[in-house]
Design goal:
about 450 residues, alpha/beta, Rossmann fold, 13 helices, 15 strands, globular
Length: about 450
């Protein structure tokens, strides 16, 4: 199970403020990637060495209480089914409402961990007022203030203790997840590769039964393939299709090595494609972008694949060193090339480089272009080594690590990608004080 924490509750109780505070706890939140807006619906939170994905369900529906009562109920059902921990948020300033009681009724039946969170508790009087929420029938009540942050640290301690322990992987073979928006052709690709109807495929988005893990063992290649469509034909799924597909994608991203992001050529790159892409990158997963249904594009001569590729690279920047392949699942065009690319990215992600090679690279890079000085101080980077992580990460020791400009860090990463083969995999470069080495 992916470590998903879902925030549920009626509109205007402060879910989004709480969500922003949670992902703000993380030192390198997704917002340092250019072009990412603050109003995302999901992000990654690191707390006490444990990482989890947090979802603001409010981002998937509007703010009108009457129209969306049914939508909130369906979200609660999906959250119960898919999340490891559900945070039920209520508002101390307004007290218990009918909608709160309806949500509570659904959550009390849940076998999952549900934490009742009373928001907007920022003084002693509010703390007293919050006690009425005990009547909703939950074992614990956690009082927080999303605005000031009061109580959020204690709540995070409890959340990470309730998350499932990481299970040991059964097989050490590559794991590939096919991710993307509903109806981009994910299930059809699984079926085409495996040569059998593994999942029900129709033209209606929302018909795949579950995430399907299938072992691929052909042409001397072996890997696990995860179809993340995971959309069942249920009323509450149709209403909340986007929400449900995001839940499924997050679970798959967390447990995979390389993500095959499928984009529908007839729709182009949409905001949700970029959100899913960035989630894969934030989780340090390899990525291959597959542009499906290219055969349906009218007047392909004017819409060349090259133009489309440049547009995609522009949208996904700054991390644009990603393989982009134009395929047609229907005609089985280039689908085996997609497998080859995924295996290459898998190898790139595992690549280890000797310390001597890294330091030769560092010396040559600094001779080509020295780090800009900071207020007259000469900046030097003395030493570089690879860290023992499942993805490529490196630490560089400097006399003034805090004063190395972002543009110089980007220069090093770009040059690093030119010299060593890391296409399709995110890199992490950490700059540390050389005096604190070891």
């Amino acid at each position: 199970m992916g470590n998903i924490v879902a925030i549920v509750g009626r509109p205007n109780v402060g879910k989004s403020t709480f969500f922003n505070r949670m992902i703000g706890m993380r030192k390198a939140i997704i917002d340092d990637v250019s072009g990412v807006t603050r109003d995302r619906q999901y992000g990654v939170c690191d707390w006490n060495g444990k990482q989890f994905t947090i979802i603001d369900t409010g981002g998937f529906i509007g703010d009108s209480e009457d129209v969306f009562a049914a939508a909130i109920r369906s979200q609660v059902h999906i959250a119960i089914e898919e999340a490891a921990v559900v945070l039920f948020m209520v508002d101390t300033m307004t007290g218990i409402t009918d909608l709160d009681m309806q949500v509570a009724q659904l959550l009390r039946k849940s076998p999952k961990e549900v934490l009742l969170v009373a928001n907007k508790v920022d003084n002693h009087e509010r703390m007293m007022e919050a006690q009425e929420f005990w009547s909703l029938g939950f074992e614990e009540l956690h009082c927080v203030s999303s605005v000031s942050g009061s109580g959020t640290g204690d709540l995070l301690d409890i959340i990470v203790n309730k998350l499932p322990e990481d299970t040991v992987e059964e097989e050490d073979i590559p794991k590939f997840a096919i991710i993307g928006r509903p109806n981009a052709g994910k299930s059809s690709l699984v079926n085409a590769l495996l040569g059998e109807e593994r999942s029900i495929v129709t033209d209606i988005a929302g018909t795949t039964r579950d995430t399907i893990n299938a072992k691929y063992n052909k042409f001397g290649k072996e890997f696990l393939l995860m179809d993340t469509a995971g959309l069942r034909k249920k009323k509450n799924v149709r209403e909340n299709l986007e929400f449900y597909s995001v839940m499924r994608a997050i679970k798959a991203i967390e447990s995979t090595d390389v993500c095959l992001l499928m984009i529908d050529a007839t729709r182009g790159v949409e905001a949700q494609d970029l959100n899913i892409f960035r989630l894969a990158v934030t989780n340090n997963k390899g990525v291959v972008i597959l542009v499906n249904k290219w055969d349906l594009i009218e007047g392909k001569e004017t819409n060349t694949a090259r133009d489309m590729e440049l547009l995609i690279r522009e949208r996904i920047s700054p991390f644009s060193d990603v393989p982009i392949l134009f395929i047609s699942v229907l005609d089985k065009q280039r689908i085996y090339k997609a497998v080859d690319l995924a295996l290459e990215v898998y190898e790139n992600r595992k690549r280890k480089i000797s310390t001597s090679k890294l330091n030769d690279f560092l010396k040559e890079s600094m001779e080509r272009y020295a780090p800009p000085t900071h207020r007259g101080k000469h900046i030097s980077i003395k030493y570089m080594t690879q860290l023992p992580t499942p993805y490529p990460s490196f630490v560089l020791f400097s006399n003034y690590p805090k004063h190395i400009k972002e543009s110089y860090k980007q220069y090093l990463e770009n040059r690093f990608r030119d010299v060593f083969e890391f296409t399709g995999t995110p890199l992490k470069l950490f700059f540390r004080d050389k005096n604190k080495q070891g």
